[in-house]
Amino acid sequence: NAGVTQTPKFQVLKTGQSMTLQCAQDMNHEYMSWYRQDPGMGLRLIHYSVGAGITDQGEVPNGYNVSRSTTEDFPLRLLSAAPSQTSVYFCASSHRDSRAWYFGPGTRLTVT
Amino acid sequence: AQKITQTQPGMFVQEKEAVTLDCTYDTSDPSYGLFWYKQPSSGEMIFLIYQGSYDQQNATEGRYSLNFQKARKSANLVISASQLGDSAMYFCAMRARNSGGYQKVTFGIGTKLQVIP
User: Rounded to whole angstroms, how far apart are CA atoms A9 and A44?
Assistant: First the structure.
């Protein structure tokens, strides 16, 4: 049981490049979310999903796309990276009405 | 809209003393949940404690307890007998349904706790 896994751990991109941050969980959780963490701003919700095929926007969705074709995977796509997207990205998952959310280890992204 | 507010950017506590970290929330969902997470300098998010809106008693987990005051919409974390290893960022979070009926979890901006020997 690996829990929530994220790849890569670190990434450096140039402005305008695209990439996908991967997130996977093996706990059959319905709910998955992406957050970004910036100093002094806590964790802000980017996109979330309540099941395969169902996604919704969070507080800061601009510049990011998601899809959820399987229960296990919830990739986050940056279509054209900008320096403002430099951040630490966390993926989390949970069962509905669960008393805990499980976090991945995070991806540190730098856009130059 | 749901909102979590943590108003203490930083706190100091003497080792072995108790400390309270404040959290207030707002939501129109009557069935919500409140969480506290710890983030040490290594960066991982560690789940500490959970309180459901319909739970009759305040949640406790070892040295952590949640002072849940529903009418005041507050969910303060109390750490008893602080240890040096408690030095970390602490985040309050809330799970609630939005107007579309989907559950989502939103976080406060965190409180940095430093334990002094």
Answer: 19
Work out the average pLDDT over B75-103.
Answer: 94
B5 touches chain A (CB under 8 A): no
Q: Which of A3, A26, A11, A5 has the alpha carbon at shortest distance from A78?
A: A11
| B32-54 confidence digits (pLDDT tens) | 999 999 999 999 999 999 999 99
Whole-number average pLDDT of chain A: 95
Nearest-CA residue of chain A relative to B44? A105
Other beta carbons within 10 Å of B117? 6
For chain A, which residues lie within 8 Å of any Cβ of chain B, measuring from their own Cβ? 31, 33, 35, 40-45, 48, 50, 54, 56, 58-59, 88, 90, 92, 94, 96-97, 99-103, 105-106
